[in-house]
Amino acid sequence: MLNLNLYDVVRKPIISEKSTDLMALSKYTFEVDERVNKSIVKKAIEKIFNVKVLKVNIHNKDGDVVIFKGKKGVKKSRKKAVVTLMKDYTIDFIGGVK
Predict the structure, then answer these.
(1) Taking a C-beta distance cutoff of 8 angstroms, is the pair 86, 54 a contact?
(2) How many CB atoms lie within 10 A of CB 9?
(3) How big is the CA angle at 79 (ends 50 and 21), to the nearest 5 degrees?
(4) Beta carbons of 49 and 26 less than 8 angstroms apart
(5) What is the per-residue pLDDT for 18?
(6) Alpha-carbon span 53 to 19, nearest angstrom
(7) pLDDT tens-digit readout, 9-42
(8) What are the chain's domains?
């Protein structure tokens, strides 16, 4: 078992056009630590946001090769999790912003 804080497991929510469309289906996207698995992500999301998780899908994204001013480089690899919540549960990322 990894000795990680809940907020180390779930780094940040991913807010994009595609992930915003998925929110209507009770699916939320998060960037997570590279060392965690589905069960750890499920426990962390349930405790942080006080919701019930139905399913977790994990996607590993390798770093892209980029060329900048003639120099080759590699972007950082990341792991993201798409979390499906049970019916009648939601997560409010905006939190009263007007």
Answers:
(1) yes
(2) 21
(3) 60
(4) no
(5) 94
(6) 17
(7) 999 999 999 999 999 999 999 999 999 999 999 9
(8) 6-85 (3.30.70.330)
